[in-house]
Amino acid sequence: MVVLSQPALDQFSIIKTCKPTTFFSGIPVIDLSKPDSKALLVKACEEFGFFKLINHGVPLEFMTRLESEALKFFSLPQSEKEKAGPPDPFGYGNKRIGPNGDVGWVDYLLLSIYPEFISKISQSIFPENPEIFWNAFSKLLMDEQSDSLFRLNHYPPCPDHQASSDRNLIGFGEHTDPQIISVLRSNSTSGLQIFLRDGSWVSVPPDQNSFFVSVGDSLQVMTNGRFRSVRHRVLANSLNSRVSMIYFGGVPLSDRIAPLPSLMKEGEESFYKEFTWLEYKKSAYKSRLADNRLGQFEK
Ligand code: GA4
């Protein structure tokens, strides 16, 4: 068995913030029950690359049940959780994020959403309620080949000596998501921040009843830069643990990622070189979390 030593505490990034958290009130809210939701959604993706989705039709009870199953897993002794690791490509991970030295104050599960994988993993990770996990995905529209994944993150409260009154520990460092879209649901603990076009970081008010949708790098390319992938990060909370669940929607590995012809104006040129999702993914896994991954694919 290979025993990996834990990252030293001084490897964790600390950032200065003003406490108590001041929440940003400008997050676009898309109400799926309203007729103007499509137009507002496009505007939100252009201006923020991020929005909050309400009236989405997924019952809160279902989300809280899934969350409590996840918490049961994250509350297990470390040695038990390690049995579901390493997250290579799927499984349990602790503090280390990706293969290139990034660390965060986070505990997580990276899961595939394919039927075979789900039934196997649900038996071992959620033995008392294996069906809950399957129910979460059975209704998603999926291409058999699409390279989508699901992530459960658990951010334990950060220790006092690490986070003082004006400093915060990074739970998950700043990055953009490589896929098309990411759909996140968290409990009511704050921590998520997004980077605005004016160069400021703002805190997203948590809302356990809603989903938060982010534009990923692939969608930025597919819209030839009209939608921008949103840089985001998570700060650890000094009092409460944060649990989030994220669905990352990706295309099949062999698919070409390029601006959609239907979105291009006459004579408009692509801002990006040609590449497949496999090529992009390979290069993403060679990068550090905070890197601008699209940079090398720009013309
Ligand atoms: C960010 C989005 C998803 O969480 C993820 C992450 C992945 C990982 O945690 O292993 C990556 C990160 C994410 C982007 C760059 C690479 C890959 C860590 C990392 C340094 C699962 C994904 O698809 O890309």
From TrEMBL:
**What are the protein's UniProt keywords?**
Iron, Metal-binding, Oxidoreductase
Keyword Nucleotidyltransferase carried by entry:
no
Q: Where is the signal peptide?
A: none
Domain Fe2OG dioxygenase: residue ranges: 145-251
Cross-referenced Pfam families: 2OG-FeII_Oxy, DIOX_N
Q: Which GO terms describe its molecular function?
A: metal ion binding; oxidoreductase activity
Q: Which InterPro entries does this one have?
A: DIOX_N, IPNS-like_FE2OG_OXY, IPNS-like_sf, Iron_ascorbate_oxido_reductase, Oxoglu/Fe-dep_dioxygenase_dom
Q: Which family does it belong to?
A: Belongs to the iron/ascorbate-dependent oxidoreductase family.
Q: PANTHER family given for it?
A: 2-OXOGLUTARATE (2OG) AND FE(II)-DEPENDENT OXYGENASE SUPERFAMILY PROTEIN-RELATED
Q: Give the protein name, as stated in the record.
A: Fe2OG dioxygenase domain-containing protein
- Organism classification: Eukaryota, Viridiplantae, Streptophyta, Embryophyta, Tracheophyta
